[in-house]
Amino acid sequence: MKSFALLILILLLAQGVKAVEPNPNQPSSVEERRIRTAIEEQYNRFQLEGDQLKVEQMQLKTLQKEVDKKLVQMQNLRDELSRLLNRKQLEEGKRVAELGKIYEKMNEAKAAELLKNLDPQLAIELLATMNKKTAGKILNNLDEKTATELSTGFTEIPVNQTPGY
C-alpha cells in the first residue's frame, strides 16, 4: 500500500499538480476572522464619521457666509442710522439757532421767564446762540439759582454719548 500511495504521489507531481497553498486573504483562524471583522467595522465607522465631518464643515461654511452677510447688512444699517442721527442733530441745531434768534428779539424779562421753564440743556443751547449782550440781560432777569445753573452748564463742554462706542 505504501508503494501505491507513493506511486500516486509521484504521478501527481509529474503532472504538475501543486499542493494547496493557503490564501493570504482568507483568515486561517477564528481569532483572525474576529480581528479582521473588528478592523473592517472600525474602518467603516471612520468612513461614516469622515463623511459626517465633511457635511458639517459644509454647513459651517454656509452658516459663516450667512453670518458675514448679516454683519454687512448690520454695518450698512448702522451707517445709515449714523447719517440720519447726524442729519437730525444738524436740523435740531438749526432750529435751536432760529429759536435763539426769536428769544433774542423778545423782551428780556419774558424770555427769562420762558427759559426758566425749559429743559436746562435747551436753555443753555439757546443762550449760546444769542448775542452775548442779550444773553446777559436775560440771565440778569432770572432768579439767582437758575442763572447760576445755566451759567455753569454754559461753561461745561458736553460729551456726545454715541451708543455702541
Describe the structure in your own words.
The chain has helices spanning 2-15, 30-105, 108-116, 120-129, 132-140, 144-155. It starts with a helix and ends in a 10-residue tail after the last helix. Helix 2 crosses helix 4 (120-129). The chain is mostly helical and 165 residues long. It has one domain: Annexin V, domain 1.
Précis, in short:
The protein is mainly alpha-helical and 165 residues long. It contains 6 helices and no strands.
Helix/strand layout:
Elements: H1 2-15, H2 30-105, H3 108-116, H4 120-129, H5 132-140, H6 144-155
Looking at the structure, the CATH topology is: Annexin V, domain 1
Task: Give the helices and strands as they follow along the chain.
Answer: HHHHHH
Largest sheet: none
Sheet-strand content, in percent, reads: under 5%
- Overall geometry comes to rod-shaped
Give the tally of β-strands.
0
Which residues form runs of ≥5 with pLDDT under 50? Answer: none
- The level-1 CATH class: Mainly Alpha
CATH architecture: Orthogonal Bundle
Mean of pLDDT: 83
Helix proportion = over 70%
How many domains would you count in the coordinates?
A: 1
The gyration radius over C-alpha positions equals: 48 Å
Structural class: mainly alpha
Please work out how many helical segments DSSP would assign.
6
Distance between the termini: 107 Å
